[in-house]
Design goal:
mainly alpha; two-stranded antiparallel sheet; 488 residues; globular; two-stranded antiparallel ribbon; 21 helices
């Protein structure tokens, strides 16, 4: 095993052990959409259909209410899933293993209670997500290593981001966000390496809308970027070559997968997305009026925002500016993907993603934000003025992860506008600190005009940081290695 293999294996083991030991605390974590994804996986595995009424009546699942916006009643009385079916399809082998194991132990040692069946099955899905999260840390390491050219830094940052919210949160629950993040990160890595568009890329792009309907736009964006990148020769775009890609096998695979999920959605919901079945459900369709609230809240809100749970992400804009100076084309690709993904959910009333670990809906693009932070750390680590701030920020991020590791329920929000982390660890002081933070989610709301103030402050901090990093200071390593000038 070479050096890279040892680094990847070590990273995988450390990350997986962190997840497993967190799970053994047996602290309340929550479930949200998870049991309903498992119900769909059960129906696909045992019944080979998507009619869920019999599954929800089973003894070990009857406690979960399908009418809580998790299923759709058809005119003929059938119970259809409200969630996309791509994740439950991936869960079929997991459920099949859990079901077979439980049946085997029942024959050998007697039947188990419904609670124990549910706990074991849920743990199998949780452990599968832990394995995926540990594998994802290796993917981040490879991606970061290629972008920065620094193996040690890439390893440290991959470990740090894997163990920090929100990636930590979603390596424990059977949600769509982590698999989507894996697919997006892998495709961005291949775009950076300028690999030719192939069958693997096509299969992943084609499967993105299967995981969730909000991935339609980002899948289209990926396909167009691969087409354009493959059709560019020098500085001229070879349009005939790009159009010729329409007839190639990878592109046909994409269209077949897209066509399949469109037909499945029409069959389930009567339209291309669940909005076609939202009669009587208090969700509004896309409304641009929500954007001034959702966009700042996803980053700044005291109970739902990214920066509150992982402050290191504050510097991702500076990192993008540094990346643009180094690789403008790839930086543009990242911005396009982030914009195409964000616009698909930020304009909905329930922009925070429901009862779940925050910020749920940012998770698929968080690795791209992490890349911006990585570029910032890479540049700052070489500057004398940042010699101490950078280790302190990285160490502080890891310390926060250890605090979450102690009490996993702090990773969840209760949809009440309260930051459980601050109130748990700091008590009344934490409540007072929380009151000073912006609140776009719960009454009393922070005025909308303050969102512009916070956005301007974020941009100002990143601009000053960027200017400081590029103004030509001599890096510490170079300054120490320069020979003294000879004076005659």
């Amino acid at each position: 095993m070479g050096t890279k293999g040892i680094e990847a294996t070590t990273l995988f083991v450390i990350t997986l052990l962190f997840f497993i030991t967190l799970k053994t605390h047996r602290s309340y974590i929550g479930q949200g959409d998870e049991p309903h994804y498992i119900v769909i996986a059960e129906s696909l595995t045992l019944d080979r259909d998507l009619e869920l009424s019999n599954n929800y009546r089973s003894p070990w699942l009857k406690d979960f209410d399908p009418n809580d916006h998790h299923s759709v009643k058809t005119p003929d009385g059938r119970e259809r899933p409200f969630h996309s079916i791509g994740l439950p399809i991936l869960g079929i082998p997991i459920y099949a293993f859990a079901h077979g194991y439980l049946n085997l132990t029942a024959r050998l040692f007697g039947p188990t209670t419904k609670d124990k069946r549910w706990i074991f099955t849920k743990n199998m899905f949780s452990f599968s997500m832990m394995l995926l999260g540990a594998f994802f840390s290796i993917l981040l390491f490879r991606f970061f290593q290629d972008v920065t050219g620094r193996s040690k830094l890439a390893w440290i940052m991959a470990l740090l981001f894997s163990l920090a919210p929100p990636l930590l949160s979603y390596s424990l629950v059977f949600f769509t966000e982590l698999p989507t993040a894996v697919l997006i990160t892998f495709l961005m890595w291949k775009l950076y390496k300028k690999e030719p568009f192939n069958v693997i890329h096509a299969a992943l792009i084609g499967y993105l809308p299967w995981l969730h309907t909000r991935n339609y736009l980002i899948a289209i964006a990926f396909l167009l970027i691969f087409w354009i990148q493959e059709g560019v020769k020098g500085k001229r775009i070879n349009f005939f070559k790009r159009l010729g890609g329409l007839c190639r096998v990878p592109t046909l695979i994409v269209f077949v997968l897209w066509g399949g999920i469109l037909l499945a959605n029409v069959h389930l919901w009567g339209g291309l997305s669940p909005t076609a079945a939202w009669k009587g459900i208090p969700f509004k369709p896309f409304d641009p009026a929500y954007l001034p609230i959702s966009l700042p809240a996803l980053f700044f809100d005291r109970s739902q925002g990214l920066f509150v749970f992982a402050p290191l992400y504050l510097f991702f804009i500076c990192g993008y500016a540094l990346l643009y100076k180094r690789n403008p084309e790839f930086a543009r690709h990242i911005v396009i993907i982030i914009a195409c993904y964000t616009i698909t959910f930020a304009g909905y009333k329930q922009w925070w993603g429901g009862w779940s670990p925050p910020p749920r809906l940012l998770v698929p693009i968080v690795p791209l934000l992490a890349l911006g932070v990585l570029m910032f750390v890479r540049a700052a680590a070489d500057q004398k003025s940042w010699r101490w701030p950078v280790p302190l920020m990285l160490g502080g991020t890891f310390f926060l992860s250890l605090l979450y590791w102690q009490v996993p329920k702090l990773l969840w929000n209760q949809e009440d506008g309260i930051n459980l982390f601050l109130t748990h660890w700091l008590g009344k002081v934490g409540t007072n600190v929380q009151d000073l933070l912006p609140n776009f989610f719960w009454v009393p709301y922070t005025p909308q005009w303050m969102a512009l103030v916070y956005a301007a402050l974020l941009l100002f901090i990143n601009t000053l940081t960027f200017a400081d990093l590029i103004k030509g200071r001599t890096p510490v390593s170079k300054k120490l290695s320069q020979p003294k000038k000879f004076v005659a």
